[in-house]
Amino acid sequence: QVQLVESGGGLVQAGGSLRVSCAASGLTFGNYAMAWFRRAPGKERQFVAAISRGGVTTRYADSVKGRFTISRDNAKNTAYLHMNSLKPEDTAVYYCAGKLYGTTTAIAYDYWGQGTQVTVSS
Fold first, then answer.
1. Sign (positive/negative) of CA torsion 56, 61, 62, 63?
2. At a CB cut-off of 8 Å and minimum separation 6, what does 108 contact?
3. How far is CA 25 from CA 15, 57, 121, in A?
4. For residue 24, is pLDDT > 90?
5. Which end of the chain has fewer CB atoms within 10 angstroms, the N or the C?
6. Is 86 helix (H, G, I), strand (E, B) or coil?
């Protein structure tokens, strides 16, 4: 069955960096646009970034633009979110999601991971 498994979350100080990964299995990874979302305590899920199937096109939420970079390695069936200059307001559970034949503007996603916690201390 299809699985998206996030890893790499943790505790980091404000201004620090972290990379989270999303390992996919049970699907043809290159056919899926991938995205990262996050949910902070008491808040709704928020779009963070998306990347096209070939990795050429990306899209970011304004709140992370210039600080976060989404990437993918189709040979490894893995998507990444590189987070720099982290702020306490970036604290959230980060989820990856995949959309079959999707684009970076996809609204609904077909598969979701279980999430990884990222905590940024001030």
1. negative
2. 99
3. 33, 22, 33
4. yes
5. N
6. coil
Is 38:94 a contact under the CB 8 Å cutoff? yes
Give pLDDT tens digits for 59-90: 999 999 999 999 999 999 999 999 999 999 99
Residue bearing tokens 């307001």 = 89
Asked if 115 and 93 count as a contact pair (C-beta separation under 8 A), the reply is: yes
What is the identity of the amino acid at 22?
Answer: C
The rounded Cα 122 to chain-centroid distance in angstroms is 23
pLDDT at site 1: 94
Q: Name the percent of the chain lying above pLDDT 90.
A: 96
Closest CA to 116 of 48, 52, 26: 48
How far is the C-alpha of 52 from the C-alpha of 65, rounded, in Å? 17
